Amino acid sequence: MMSPELRKALYTHLQTAIEIELSTIPIYLYTYYSIQRQPQDTDSLPNGRALATFANKAGGLLMSVAVEEMLHMSLSCNILRSLGGEPKLYCRSPGAYPTNLPHHKAGFAVGLEPLSAHQLDQFKVIEVPEAEGAPPQSDNWDSIGQFYRYIVELLDQTSDEDYGHGDEQLAAHRGYYSPNNVDTVYPKDAYYIQQPEDPFNPVKRGAEQAQYPNNKDSGHLRRIRCKHDAKMAIHAIMLQGEGYTNDPSHKRDDPERNEVSHWYKYDALRQEINSFSASDLSLIIQPFPVNPTRAGYPAPFLPLVDLANAVYSYLFLLTETAYRLDGEAQESLFYVGMHKGMIFILDKILGGMRYQYLNNQAGQVLAPTFENYQFNSLATAKQELIDLCLAVPASLGLDSNILGRIRDLPDVNVGPDGIVRF
Q1: DSSP strand pairing (186-187 vs 210-211)
Q2: Which of 48, 128, 267, 397 could form a disulfide bond with 42, CB atoms 3.0-4.6 angstroms apart?
């Protein structure tokens, strides 16, 4: 059995791993939502076809990384839970941007910025492969791989008997955590829609163009029941981010060599973005502010900003609560609530915000701030979410279906009977 000292170290560093992922998810999502994946004003440009194709590709690759960061967060949560710890997610995102990653070497800061060459350079620093001979480090590390290899060294000191909470974890279920979704797929040529359609096989045109940036064999959500499971989960996180350390290109991260690493995806986009002028990029990138805050927005927009932050925080609260449950209660809370909330609520709110102009001198649009929202009480959190939605004026263009979808979310105030109520 683990010593108290080893248990404390693993609990501490696995929680840090969770918070590293919680730092990257909003940063990547912010840049994703700044991209107009189907631009309307590129047809007349000499390079309009290439620009439109780049926009869709950049969006697909960014979302493919964000999806895997959510997977990494959940894998770290599963390891922590398997050892008897309780993952903390609610209100654990960075308090302000720009931010350094937890326990990263000082001097690096990345923030909420629209797509740009500079932002892609920052993303490459986040996912940078380990330098040859770099030691495992729990603090002051240069690459995430160094930090995760330190966790592997701690896991090597455990025994299979230490992993006694297999049923209180999250796992791939009913298609959730599929490697790809509609937002990660992109076409080889964005103008494929102008090609003639086969009336006998109408899906052929799109199927032949579809690029799937994530591959099912590169790593998946798994329950942790032994030391081997835990180490395999950590290795999947490392490889998806930086690629194989014995491959100088750090391109591939899966045995079938069908998926490229996060670092390589960002490196490819960084090289490609140089092909376009600032004027070109303005047609595919929304004029998002840099590191926006609630306090910095005009008062008329605050109801929508508050709702977005509250939904974002509620989804992590759902996930955290799910780790204290199992069986049908866990299914209702996470597999139904978290995924419905992310796809049908948060995505629609964030996607709609960017059409609200701030009417400032820079001509910027409203963008999410990804700030933690502190509910007054878990007993009233869902009702607070409903009230925030009702407070958004029609002038802010909130999707009319959002209120009903919020009402359909499970309530995090799970009673002593263990039943999740909606």
Answers
A1: antiparallel
A2: 48
